[in-house]
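Hey all, sorry for the wall of text incoming. These are the two entities for the joint prediction.
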Amino acid sequence: MVLVCATSLSGSAQEAGEGDAAKAVRVLEDERVKAQSRNDNHALDLIFDNALVYIESGKLVTKGDYLSRIKSANPQLQQIVPEAMTVRTVENTAIVVGTYRETYVKDGKSSSKRWRFVDTWVKKQGSWMLVAAAAVPLSK
Amino acid sequence: MIARMLEAGTTVKTLMLVALLACVRTSASFAPADADSDAEAKVVAMQHMWGQAYVSKDPKALERILDDAFVNVDSDGMLQTKAEVVAEVNTSTTAQFLTESMAVHLHGGTAIVTGVFEIKGVSRGKPYAQRERFVDTWLYKNGQWISIAGLVTRLGQ
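and here's what came out:
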């Protein structure tokens, strides 16, 4: 269902001056996008915390729900292109805010929608884990 | 302050109390969040305070709850800073803020809160009711929980 264009956002002005933690989280965000593009449940399983809460289109989805859907998804139906991303780290927590464009086919016609997302990462036993992810469609 | 108290003839007991309070505050500032056994209750209480701030138009309450670098994504997908959210409270038309559900997920010094609330009010002479799902991120910082990020998305009626 989801084909993600793993557009690298590295080298952007926003990235300049980021600390190592922020860079590590940015790399993980890119890996997550690539894993989604491959329907790679194993990679996503390692990135997602077991208590992940995911909110999309107003619905609350668990890690299990999300992974089972990715497993059976048709990657030709949807495409996601990341646009911008800022990463802020405070101790063992990182907040990522950004936008992406989603294109999809509905009733035989191609449409697109832009979303703004907020992801929360927590460093656990040396590894950054995604503990919350949510997105809202941009109305303008 | 202590010098003034001594001048005023403050008792030794009072000075000991001041010292004890100082120690408690200091240890709280550096205590790991895991040591905060009431973390969930505290975060839930502040979530309720957050909602009620819109009803009572109390920007000062939000000043205390939100981190200076707080970011929020509203239900239109717009990005808001702490200053913008606090200013929004001043012009709030919310008459009722009802929390339907709330769940707290603790990750050490970080708490993720998800839930659903309903707001009711009157805007431009017309009554409205809106249900929204939210996800907020809280951080245990300097001995207290503060929110560092939030997002709300509309739900059907």
